[in-house]
Amino acid sequence: MIYFDNSATTKVDPAVLKTYEQVSENYWGNPSSLHRFGEEADQLLIQSRRQIASQLGVQPAEILFTSGGTEGDNWVIKGTAMAKRQFGRHLITTQVEHDAVKHSMQRLEELGFEVTYLPVDEEGRVQPADLKAALRPDTILVSVMAVNNEVGTIEPLAEIAKILQDHPKVHFHVDAVQGIGKGIHDLIFNDRVDFVTFSGHKFHAPRGIGFIYARTGKKLTPLLDGGGQERGQRSGTENLPAIAAMAKAVRLLKQNESHAVALEQQLRLSLREYLQQFDKVHIFSGTGDHFAPHILCFAIEGVKGETIVHAFEEDGIYLSTTSACSSKKGLTSSTLSAMGIAPEIARGAVRISLSDQNTMAEGERFKQVFATRYEQFKTLS
Ligand SMILES: Cc1ncc(COP(=O)(O)O)c(C=O)c1O
Question: Which residues form the Aminotransferase class V domain (predicted)?
Answer without folding.
Answer: 2-365
